[in-house]
Design a protein that fits this description.
This protein is of the alpha/beta class. Helix content is 34%, strand content 21%. It has one domain: Purple Acid Phosphatase, chain A, domain 2, CATH 3.60.21.
Length: 223
């Protein structure tokens, strides 16, 4: 949470590009447990006047009114095009984009179907969290990127480059999902960035009007 405090002191807005939680769901009788300190910190930042946007990722796409009404964040479930740092930016988590993640792409419509979400919402939170936890572990991110992560990262980069070529109105594409920091200038004044993550890779993206995007680590630029 130290990074959140750092960002809140420096930024006019914080954008978290998915997978803020290992798993998050808003049930009929409560929400996913174990994140109370993080939620309290997020609420304090928003209450202090720094807006926070969370793009739902494959671990936390099922957010809803608790995050928006109780915490005060903006919560998005689909890619958006916005002006960020003075640049027309396509912001997306990245799951389901490109040619990678075939198995996930096949099951994704089921996991996000209204019927599946309605049924899961009826479960007691502890039971739902236990079921989801069997498939939602992220401890592997502590290690160097696996071949599968590299493949996912390459697929997202290829998709982003093709999209920038096809959509000249875009200046910047920012993705997550792969958790592999990537910075590529596709053309003059046009970039693709995967910000990695601030917990394991210790990387994040700074966008300032009038300056190129900066992918940085704690204390030094990310090569």
């Amino acid at each position: 949470m130290a990074w959140l405090d750092h960002a809140a002191g420096e930024a006019g807005r914080i954008v978290v590009n998915g997978d803020l939680f290992d798993f998050w769901f808003e049930y009929l009788w409560g929400t996913t447990g174990g994140y109370e300190p993080v939620l309290a910190r997020l609420k304090a930042i928003v209450d202090a006047g720094v807006p926070i946007t969370l793009m739902g990722g494959n671990h936390d796409w099922w957010g809803g009114r608790f995050l928006t009404d109780e915490i005060g964040m903006e919560f998005l479930r689909a890619p958006v095009v916005r002006e960020l740092g003075g640049r027309t930016t396509l912001l997306a988590h990245g799951d389901g984009l490109g040619n990678g993640d075939l198995g996930y792409r096949l099951i994704r419509p089921v996991l996000r179907s209204p019927l599946a979400c309605w049924c899961f919402r009826l479960l007691p939170p502890a039971l739902g969290d236990r079921i989801a936890g069997r498939a939602s572990r992220t401890e592997h991110r502590w290690s160097e990127p696996s071949p599968r992560q590299r493949q996912r990262s390459n697929a997202l980069e290829n998709w982003a480059v093709e999209t920038l070529h096809a959509r000249p109105e875009l200046d910047l594409i920012v993705l997550g999902h792969a958790h592999v920091p990537t910075f590529r200038e596709v053309g003059p004044g046009r970039w693709y960035v995967n910000a990695g993550d601030w917990v394991f890779r210790r990387t994040y993206l700074i966008l300032e009007e009038g300056r190129p995007p900066l992918l940085t680590e704690w204390g030094e630029p990310c090569a």
